TrEMBL record, chain A:
Name listed for the protein in its UniProt record: Esterase TesA
One function term, GO molecular function aspect: phosphatidylcholine lysophospholipase activity
Listed transmembrane segments: none
GO BP term, example: lipid metabolic process
A UniProt-annotated Pfam family: Lipase_GDSL_2
PANTHER family: THIOESTERASE 1/PROTEASE 1/LYSOPHOSPHOLIPASE L1 (PTHR30383), THIOESTERASE 1_PROTEASE 1_LYSOPHOSPHOLIPASE L1 (PTHR30383:SF24)
Start and end residues of each SGNH hydrolase-type esterase domain: 53-216
InterPro entries: Ester_Hydrolysis_Enzymes (IPR051532), Lipase_GDSL_AS (IPR008265), SGNH_hydro (IPR013830), SGNH_hydro_sf (IPR036514)
Signal peptide limits: none
Source species of the chain: Mucilaginibacter polytrichastri
Automatic annotation (TrEMBL), chain B:
Record domain MacB-like periplasmic core: where: 33-235
GO cellular component term of the entry, any: plasma membrane
Protein name: ABC3 transporter permease protein domain-containing protein
Location within or outside the cell: Cell membrane
Membrane-traversing stretches: 32-53, 267-291, 312-337, 357-388, 409-427, 433-455, 485-504, 730-750, 771-802, 814-834
Lineage of the species this protein comes from: Bacteria, Pseudomonadati, Bacteroidota, Sphingobacteriia, Sphingobacteriales
Species, as recorded: Mucilaginibacter polytrichastri
Domain of life of the native organism: Bacteria
Length: 231, 852
């Protein structure tokens, strides 16, 4: 029998309302689409094409004062300066796991993406979810996009978990992205946080989420793979 | 006896004054004891509560220390800077280090992997509390070899036994023991990932410390001598902050643990304060009646040539002596009680309370006793100076108004000043103490007014048509030598204090403990996808667990408020709205009713949305106030890509103390059903075994669902909070009993005033029954009226205290208040009747002779 107390209840309340439990607060949490609406308003006349970034807190820009400092925002700025006819939609939700993404994908696919960036899995990894399960979910998301918009180009953004999680798990997790990309013949950014992850001065105090400087490098990692697809 | 011509001259002859004080007391020793007893009880109460409270606080502090396990802990998410090492190595007399991180560990036997929180420990940590393990010795022994301590739920989940092994990183560790409880294990993180302890010296071998690894570095310090850690840390705060080091002391942890500790401290000082006031009431009424009885003797002395100053001094000396004797006995009794209580109630006491003699409390008690005696005696004493020899002849001393000396204002000021100063020492805030004093003055005035009204009313309504007994009983209320004012004030004030304590106590206890019934949840599951909802319900039912609550949660953000977006709001300084509302990520729910723990305080709740119109939503009161959101504000939410136009239709308060999912924003039905959402579910697991089995099943079938066993997370904290609740109950019961004792004493004091009357009535032929009825009627009026007034004042007082001092919602049950009212009325009557017993059981003549 566990007696329950005020603080427990408050903890719980916080947890659900703000999703402020330590894990989600630290690891994930999304800013959704605060800047998306702006973007949509300014840059989606019917003739432009759409880049949809579907992801978690890294996409949403968790912890940043201005969510448009997150890597989709940086990419958008770059596209604007190059006067390319693309709108970038940030569809990141903090704390999102691959399972969460799977149940959200139908809602998001109401709009047609020309390029679909898939950035999920990091939260599965930090929660220690089984890699097989994550693969199944990511595959299902890819299948749904392909089924609804066969023309859309899909780019998978790869992630890694910290070495402290244990070698076996770290390796399985790392291998998942290239395997998925090869199997589905889609684009791959091998490691989204290349040259950013684990570097203190490029991350926020939580050590997980990139700061604006880090986000620029993240955007650069993505840009290398994305640019050839832009017309 | 004395020579008048000598007395005409100064000096006052101190020796003679003392002798007189002594002689005067001789005749009244027996009744003097009664007066002293009131002081004794008052002071005993103060001393006992002081030292008991002091000890309880100390013991609770020690318990709180197990929340952190050391005097000071410093943590960082990366290795500390070289420049910080000298500081880190200089702190504390004993030091421990720990590295903690999340990792997947492998159980070779069950062939299973699970995310855990690995804690690599070196040193004697914990310094407070222990790593509670099975077998017990494992808690310290595991550091001697390549051994690990594994959380008990984890052991159950993998069917592991002590002696099995686990693989952490590349190394295999022998499971030395099952970890049942660890200090500092109160963070919610430990609920998500169960803890595994390994010795720090084997960490490198695991190969888990690499570039990119997320490791927390913890340093624990213990001081063997008395050090003010809070002060110490303050001194290096900026240095620590600069180096990105966080610190935790017992004090900061207590603060974070919630307000329970603060409430306890405040409650203890309130108890001390009220004990003092009860003591004052007892002492003051005793002294008052004593002096009034002395008027005749004083008048006679004046006839014999004693100067008024001398008469004043004689009684002052007497009072000081009485006060001193009473206080010393009281202090001794108080310490005795304080020592006896834990022995007698050992099994009932929530924690083992140490019983150190608190000389501080004793000294304070004695000083207080004397000061209170003198202060409250001064009021009638200054009147002594006005007693003229003529009073002997007239023998109608009721005509002297004891309170018509201009000096009395000085005494009043002194008394008020004393209460303010003393309450300052109790509450350590001038503002609070002034408010308290005003409150008491108001209560005092109300009671005096009620008493005066009663006297006037009794005079008015008394008619000859009533039976003799009723007339006598009623008339006693206003006749000369009545006790109406003094008893109403003292009984009324005592009732007020007792009732207030009772109310506050039950409010605090309610606040601290939410009972563990099967209705209260202790496990939360979230990230349940819509497709998994039904299956999970079935699984939960399969384990015979209740689904206490299952709510949809939709994540959203605010685009615009009243047509303005974040940038526009930031620029427009005329808008009060906090920009914070735009950066916040809302986890909202939708339903068609408000739940019982919510209350709409403004606007109207609308349960369904009408399509084509703005969606009527409900916002939580405090959040709305903090961010300047008002009823009727138009908010455009961005529900993961779709803008939803809403209007704030209602503001509601939420009882956050309830163990359930609460929300800042609630949508009506008919809008968010199709939006991406997940479910949160609450259930109650009856035992650790069931919890483990259920968790295992959930993890297997729904790998994405996160699950937090709050019972496990909060067991340390819960126990402590439980105890706090018990301490609060115990302390208030203790002081309420003291209050009753003081009450008894102050009614007993009136005994001698009534004896003569009763004797006269008996000589005139009154029967036992008649005298009893008269007395019972008089005390019924006094008791009932003062208890009623006191209860009502207590209601107001508790409300004010709850609102301004404790900041908790006010709730007072009428039933216990009615109980207190009845009890005090009955008590007053009973004591009053007991007072007359002495008269009734003896022949009148015996008393008449014996008395004069």
């Amino acid at each position: 029998m566990y007696p329950f107390k005020k603080s427990a209840a408050i903890l719980l309340s916080l947890l659900v309302i703000s999703c402020g439990d330590k894990k989600t607060a630290k690891n994930t949490l999304a800013d959704t689409l605060a800047n998306k609406a702006d973007l949509a308003g300014q840059t989606t006349p019917t003739s432009t094409k759409t880049i949809l970034v579907f992801g978690d807190s890294l996409t949403a820009g968790y912890g940043l004062d201005d969510p448009s400092d997150a890597f989709p925002g940086v990419i958008k700025a770059k596209i604007d300066s190059l006067k390319l006819p693309y709108a970038v939609i940030n569809s990141g939700v903090s704390g999102e796991t691959s399972a969460g993404g799977l149940s959200r994908i139908d809602w998001v696919l109401k709009q047609k993406p020309d390029i679909f960036l898939l950035e999920l899995g990091a939260n599965d990894g930090l929660r220690g979810n089984s890699v097989a399960q994550t693969i199944t979910n990511l595959q299902a998301i890819i299948d749904k996009v392909k089924a609804k918009y066969p023309d859309a180009k899909i780019i998978l953004l790869g992630m890694q978990v910290p070495p402290s999680m244990g070698q076996q798990y770290v390796n399985d997790f790392k291998k998942m992205y290239p395997d998925l990309a090869a199997k589905n013949h889609i684009g791959l950014v091998p490691f989204l946080l290349e040259n950013v992850g684990g570097i203190t001065k490029l991350n926020q105090a939580d050590g997980i989420h990139p700061n604006p400087t880090g986000a620029k490098i993240v955007a650069e990692n993505v840009w290398k793979v994305l640019q050839p697809e832009l017309h | 006896m004395s020579e008048p011509n000598q007395l005409e001259k100064p000096p006052l002859k101190l020796g003679w004054l003392f002798e007189m004080a002594w002689r005067d007391s001789r005749k009244n020793r027996s009744r003097l004891f009664l007066f002293i007893s009131s002081i004794i009880f008052g002071i005993a109460a103060i001393v006992a509560i002081y030292s008991f409270g002091y000890n309880v606080k100390k013991d609770v502090d020690n318990q709180a220390a197990t929340l952190i396990g050391a005097d000071l802990s410093i943590s960082a998410s990366k290795p500390a800077d070289e420049s910080m090492m000298p500081l880190l190595n200089s702190l504390g007399d004993r030091r421990s280090q720990e590295r903690s991180f999340a990792s997947m560990i492998y159980f070779p036997k069950g062939d299973g992997t699970r995310l855990v929180q690995v804690r690599a420990l070196q040193g004697e940590f914990p310094y407070y509390g222990t790593l509670e393990t099975t077998p017990t010795a494992a808690g310290t022994d595991f550091k001697n070899g390549k051994k690990a301590l594994v959380d008990q739920t984890l052991m159950l989940q993998f069917n592991a036994q002590v002696g099995d092994s686990i693989k952490v990183g590349n190394s295999t560790f022998l499971i030395a023991g099952i970890l049942n409880k660890a200090p500092g294990q109160t963070g919610i993180a430990s609920g998500i990932a169960p803890i595994v302890y390994i010795p720090l010296q084997y960490l490198d071998q695991t190969g888990l410390m690499q570039k990119g690894s997320r490791i927390n570095y913890n340093y624990y310090y213990k001081y063997d001598h008395d050090v003010n850690v809070t002060k110490l840390v303050k001194g290096m705060e900026t240095r620590l902050e600069k180096a990105n080091l966080n610190y935790d002391t017992i004090d900061t942890r207590k603060e974070n643990t919630g307000r329970s500790f603060e409430d306890l401290t405040r409650f203890l000082s309130l108890v001390g304060f009220i004990a003092l006031l009860l003591g004052c009431v007892g002492v003051a009424s005793a002294i008052h009646i004593y002096i009034r009885e002395k008027i005749a003797s004083i008048a006679i002395m004046r006839c014999l040539g004693v100067r008024s100053t001398q008469a004043f001094l004689i009684y002052l000396i007497q009072i000081i002596s009485i006060g001193l004797i009473g206080s010393v006995i009281g202090a001794a009794l108080g310490s005795g009680i304080e020592h006896l209580l834990p022995l007698v109630f050992k099994d009932f006491l929530p924690i083992s309370v140490s019983t150190a003699i608190s000389w501080m409390a004793i000294g304070q008690g004695i000083l207080l006793g004397v000061v209170i005696s003198v202060l409250f005696a001064l009021l009638p004493l200054i009147a002594i100076r006005n007693i003229s020899p003529l009073n002997t002849l007239r023998m109608s001393y009721e005509n002297i108004n004891l309170l018509r000396d201009p000096l009395r204002w000085l005494v009043y000021t002194l008394i008020v000043g004393f209460i303010v100063v003393f309450s300052y020492f109790q509450l350590s805030s001038w503002q609070a103490s002034i408010f308290f004093t005003i409150g008491i003055l108001v209560a005092f005035l109300i009671l005096t007014l009620i008493a005066k009204l009663l006297m006037r009313l009794a005079k008015l309504v008394l008619s000859n048509s009533w039976s003799y007994l009723w007339r006598q009983g009623f008339a006693n209320l206003y006749r000369p030598n009545n006790q109406t004012i003094i008893l109403i004030v003292s009984i009324g004030l005592s009732t007020t204090f007792i009732c207030t304590l009772f109310f506050i106590q039950s409010m605090l206890v309610k606040q601290v403990s939410i009972s563990a019934t099967t209705n209260s949840a202790n496990m939360i599951l979230f990230d349940i996808q819509t497709s998994q909802k039904k299956q999970l319900e079935a699984l939960t039912a399969h384990y015979h667990l209740p689904v206490i609550q299952q709510v949809p949660v939709v994540t959203m953000r605010i685009n615009k408020v009243n047509g303005k977006n974040a940038t526009q709001v930031k620029k427009d300084t005329t808008i009060q709205l906090s920009p914070h509302v735009f950066s916040y990520e809302y986890r909202a729910t939708y339903r068609d009713t408000i739940i019982p723990t919510e209350k709409v305080i403004d606007g109207t709740w609308k349960g369904t949305a009408v399509s084509g119109t703005e969606v009527p939503i409900s916002i939580e009161d405090r959040y709305a106030k903090k961010n300047h959101l008002k009823l009727g504000d138009h908010i455009e939410f961005n529900v993961q890509g779709s803008p939803v136009q809403t209007v704030i239709a209602s503001i509601r308060t939420v009882n956050w103390t309830k163990m359930q999912t609460n929300f800042l924003v609630v949508f009506p039905k008919g809008v968010l059903e199709d939006a991406p959402q997940f479910y949160a579910m609450l259930t109650h697991v009856p035992s650790k075994q069931v919890s483990a089995k259920y968790q295992q099943a959930v993890v297997k079938q729904f790998p994405n669902v996160s699950l937090i066993d709050l019972g496990q997370v909060l067991s340390v904290l819960d126990e402590l909070l439980d105890k706090l609740g018990d301490i609060i109950k115990f302390m208030s019961a203790f002081s309420i009993i003291t209050g009753i004792v003081v009450l008894i004493a102050s009614v007993r004091i009136s005994k001698y005033q009534r004896i003569q009357e009763s004797v006269l009535l008996r000589t005139m032929g009154a029967s036992r029954r008649q005298i009893l009825t008269i007395t019972a009627l008089e005390y019924l009026f006094l008791g009932a009226l003062s208890a009623l007034t006191g209860t009502l004042i207590a209601f107001t007082g508790s409300w004010l205290l709850a609102k301004f001092s404790f900041d908790i919602p006010f709730s007072a049950d009428v039933t216990p208040a009615a109980g207190i009212f009845l009890a005090i009325t009955l008590l007053t009557i009973t004591i009053g009747l007991l007072n007359s017993r002495g008269v009734l059981n003896k022949p009148p003549l015996e008393i008449l002779r014996g008395d004069s």
